[in-house]
């Protein structure tokens, strides 16, 4: 992996899939790689906590709901598409604990060439990772032995412990073993909610002179009771005021219990001094059992809610793999970094859902007296879906003038096959449908002077094929994998211990709209949303005692082609004009070992519906914390005590809007931990 940058919060580079590991200044994209040090110091519980540092990323699923779906650059990114060691869809499905993660790599913009298509949540409805993608790198043993135990506390009364063990063996420490495990249980910051979570992840690696290999296997389980859900809008004409912080609007008998088994195996062999063969394979099995109503706001003025309780089980099984060859050769004064690979991704998804009678309650009164349904006789869903993706990608990065000018050209030929078996409504089933498409990309990096990089790229993303279903005149029509396009340019400045990036991007996503009158309607792939904007990112050290991390994003999200043209030119749902993050750490001079930290997160107002008649207001969250490091009197090794308060003002606010739903933010949350090294 690229080494850690000054300040320790981010790395000097990250993986670019087909293009391999690249430093920030040699990357023709906007990318940030958050480190394990940041994860530990901020006491991040899940990956969404880590991504709270990024101005272009916002969580769009409710806090306290056990899921980590996102908006990146104003486009949805499904929690089922997170990558693990370069394989997308292999990470735990709904939410990933951060304790076993070494790096959280955030790549902005579509990445069909680099990483291939994504499978999406149900396997046949992928959004295509339009705004960006997330890749997680697992921890492996460092050269120094690790024996680390951390006790944790989260308000209201959730206690836990993390164990981190690492050893290297062999004459040259070529063999490594790393074990990470965590367990926590107790009451969460919401009233009447408990969360029991545990995981264990083992990583084994080998570092030889010409051969490198790693194997990771993990299991995690969560039992969340009751899970908080998003709010549907129904026919309401107003958005209600949010309930007071910590109020639990969910019925007491609801539960959410996912389990995930995941594994990756990767290796590379230096065939010559200039050519390396590599491969990585992964498997993921996810099972989710749940019972809850997802409330719909029926009256925004009074806070009246209604919901249909559903008891269900979902199973995801994903296989993924990539194998290829990369080579470095010279032709005259031009240096070539070439790569060719073959990738596959196969996901099967089974869903069974039973419903009960509709219940009604109120947003501002905890529904402790609503009895659980006596039975769930209504079969709402029973289906099996599948997607099989395969692709061949090739790229060549040509550089001259000692890498002062780098031009990358590449393309990926992708084939997507999807199928649906609907056991409840067999007429809605569809056989396997396959189609193929080419996805090109071009990028350039120019370093006119030392410490400055200018970059630009054109790259595409892909959404899975869609088959027209229902009462349309073109029912059965197959829309092939739908390309989305990004054009981006920017400038990066590395002052040695402080780096800043300024980017401009323009992303267009196509969508399906309905045309024609009643009885003669067709569906066409003519809709479009266009997000244009600018991003500013900064990280590193202002002085050896002061570290900063954050930035701002300005996004103009517009619906350009809508059904009947009635919403053309209106703002996109859930895309704030401005989002900003700034965090800082200060090593105090008056107490040795004491570090103060703070973070401000701002999100502008968001439209909730396509007609732009409903909005949620802007919000600001302030987090404050401190850590104190001192030497253990027993073994002379460091002990670290950390404390943090998220949402210091305990503000109640609507955090996000997405596809006809809105979500609540978390109340004030206290985090305390102590790490012992042995």
UniProtKB/TrEMBL annotation:
Family under the similarity heading: Belongs to the TonB-dependent receptor family.
GO molecular function annotation: siderophore uptake transmembrane transporter activity; signaling receptor activity
Annotated Gene Ontology cellular component terms: cell outer membrane
Domain TonB-dependent receptor plug: 24-121
Name used for this protein in its record: Ferric-mycobactin receptor FemA
Domain TonB-dependent receptor-like beta-barrel span(s) in chain numbering: 210-648
Membrane topology: Multi-pass membrane protein
Pfam families found in the cross-reference section: Plug, TonB_dep_Rec_b-barrel
Keywords: Cell outer membrane, Membrane, Receptor, TonB box, Transmembrane, Transmembrane beta strand, Transport
Species name: Nitrobacter winogradskyi (Nitrobacter agilis)
Keyword Transport appears in the UniProt entry: yes
Main location per the UniProt record: membrane
GO biological process: siderophore transport
Compartment list: Cell outer membrane
